[in-house]
Hints:
Blueprint: E1 5-10, H1 11-14, E2 20-22, H2 34-50, E3 56-65, E4 71-76, H3 78-94, H4 98-108, E5 109-110, E6 121-122, E7 124-125, H5 128-137, H6 144-149, H7 158-175, H8 179-192, E8 193-200, H9 203-214, H10 222-232, H11 236-253, H12 255-270, H13 278-285, H14 295-315, H15 324-334, H16 343-353, H17 357-376, H18 381-396, H19 410-420, H20 431-442, E9 457-460, H21 471-475, H22 478-484, E10 491-494, H23 507-515, H24 523-529, H25 536-554
Parallel strand pairs: 2-4, 2-7, 3-8
Antiparallel strand pairs: 1-8, 3-4, 5-6, 9-10
Helix pairs in contact: 2-7, 2-8, 3-4, 3-7, 11-12, 11-14, 12-13, 12-16, 12-18, 14-16, 15-17, 16-17, 20-25
Amino acid sequence: MAQLEAREVPLHKVFCSDYDFRIPDYQRPYAWQPEQAQQLLADLEEALLRGDGEPYFLGSLVLVKDSRTAEADVIDGQQRLTTLTILLAVLRDLAQQPDVVTNLVAMISEPGNTVLGLKAKPRLTLRPRDAEFFHQHIQTSGSIKTLLALNPHNLRTDAQRAVQDNARALNTALTSWSDDQRLALCKLMGVQTFLVAVSTPDLDSAHRIFSVMNSRGLDLSPADIFKAQIIGEIDEQVSETYARRWEDAEESLGREEFSDLFLHIRMIFSGERARQELLKEFQTQVLSRYKGGRAQEFVDEVLVPYAEASAMIRDKTYAAGEGSRQVNLWFRRLLLLDNNDWWPAALWALHSHGDDPQWLGSFFRLLERLAASMFIRRVYTTPRVSRFAELLSELNRGLGLDAPAFQLTEQERTDTLARLDGDVYYGLRTRRFILLRLDELLSEDDIVATYDAPRITVEHVLPQNPGLQSKWRADFTVDDRKKWTHRLANLVLLSRAKNSQVQNLDFTDKKERYLRRGVVAFPLTTQVLGQTTWTPEHLEKRQTELLGILTEEWRL
């Protein structure tokens, strides 16, 4: 049996000669987005502000590593290690004190030691396609400024663009910090911040460990503990009935969604972002109101109604007369987002105004506008959750549809519009949402299509890499292609997988042999099929029209 070793390692020992991290070529590329990098920094900042000296754990690494050598293939933890290296590099290039720079340089790269037989090399080596880029633009002192000046269109891979995007996000945030604050962060990261390193010399064993660590077991959840507490306080004569009601609610949502429900309820009651673990905050912010023989009220008035509302959102089954269909369409639009931070506000609305579909229609229009803007601008978790917490606080104070948190500032509207007018295709998480919302708005009738095709892909009309003899190169200059290739006007939706063999055909052939066969009544795509040519002038006009539609819908 392969020897397994697991231990807590402070970051100054993670980034030292004990480990020579390598990302195997079979691993997926680096893919963290700015909001994840910003969230990592926000979590570290929160630990720094607490100032309690407690260890801060960043998660785990799974490594293939022999205990006798430093070489370590990273099976799990690549995203975190890479982002931490970027963060250290940004701190290095912002540091003013020479000794701090020296210390950070040594964490990022092994300086070499002739006596110990250590060669100078990076602490972390990415996959072969990105390793040299990462070494040149992150692991080399003074390289951040040069990295941020690079044209993203000229970067070879999505991973390289992610490195640049995250370096820019972290650099922007840390530039506003004082030297003393950045030094305090360096100290926190070096001494108080830990990773759990799980090592085994055998690859198969490492993959088994990774699978076990990432599988969802059936350990006791906070919901189970709350159930024992609440049902235990109910009179024995009816406790079985209430236990069944609790279990029915859990079964209707599924274990994971039911656990999330308690997070949502806590947020609704408190109107603030979580600051401690749910077990503590739910007791003080929610259950404390149901002491003294009121446990039944919690099940009757809170748990069951919110569970029913949550299932209604998920299944889009709101029914309360005229206007119900529009409410369910708002659910469908919100469910296209990659987060559920809006969910507590949606639950509050259904719980408070469930019999008024007209009011709910107005509420969810405002909620979707706010959530969509933050999604498109890639606002990361902490400020996003804080905004929804602010909204809930205002709703609890009776401000309703006039709640100030609903309103986008002029800067937020400008930033949203700039994202929509930029290279939308590079927004891997947002592009499909934007195009589906736009496609819906282009529909000529009042019946909004529900696209249930098993696959919906985003395709370019003007191809990314037209052939050397292609008519595309005659119609579009190099500058034209840089300007238009990845923008809204040049993108369509298909209900099929991409086909690299025909993607680069000239417009007429591509339209007939590729685009027409991949359409499930997408108005965005059928508009293209009606065109006889595809030119920069046409794209200019189309871009203006499409942006105008989204601007009007989201009042930008």
